[in-house]
Amino acid sequence: MIYFMKRLGERLFRWRETVVMFSKTCEQNVPDPADPSIFIFDSSNKLPDHLRKEFTKLRGLGMWIFTWFRMKFRGSRFLCLIEGNRICAYGWAEVSSPFIRRYRWLIPSAFLLGPFWTAPDQRGRGLYGRLLSKCLAINPDPAKLPVFIHADATNTSSLRGIEKAGFQKLGTFEVTSYLMGLWCTHKAVSQAGTVCPTDSR
Question: Mind listing the pLDDT tens digit for each residue in 141-181?
């Protein structure tokens, strides 16, 4: 709940983060890896009670409220990698059209991934890569929806995992949003791609 209240306070007033943005364009459908350990939940296929309780125990009530909100109101798909009756890793995928305001200066619409999480004792097993592969396979319109993902600039393990999955680095950006994201600005810290315009909105 402390995490939830902190995030709510940030979003209500001023939220700044430094992120590394990546993209991946697929002109045709990516083969589904058919991973039997990955389960997909959304507003119509709800998380079972025992998994909801485990998730809340793992990540806290505030994170569960955030998870419920994304599935209910943003049409997000929640991917859980479950082994041995436990949540070992999870991640998000959603069609963002129009693209969420914080990153709309990148492109009008996209298939947005993240954030992702892996249990500390499960890291180093390639679970992140398996979730990314599944996410690419469920893009509903890969010809029109490029895939975008971002990670905190200090999260070196996530950055390595994204690059390993074949994503193109666009650059590092400092993004600030005010009043629940009604007004957003960005500044390029370093830029590797040419997809981003120079103005802020």
Answer: 888 888 999 999 999 989 999 999 889 999 999 988 876 66
CA of residue 135 relative to chain centroid, distance: 10
Write down the domain spans for the chain. Answer: 2-191
- Give the number of other CB atoms < 10 A from CB of residue 6: 11
DSSP-derived secondary structure for 35-87:
-TTEEEE-SSSPPPHHHHHHHHHHH-HHHHHHHHHHHHHS--EEEEEEETTEE
CATH level 3 topology of 2-191: Aminopeptidase (3.40.630)
Q: Which helix (H) or strand (E) holds 16?
A: strand 14-24
Q: Give the bridge partners for 200, in sequence order.
A: none
CA–CA distance, 115 with 12 (Å, rounded to integer):
20
Task: Tell me how far CA of residue 131 lies from CA of 128, 135, 137, 168, in angstroms.
Answer: 5, 6, 10, 18
pTM greater than 0.90 (yes/no):
no
Look at residue 85 and tell me whether its pLDDT is greater than 90.
no
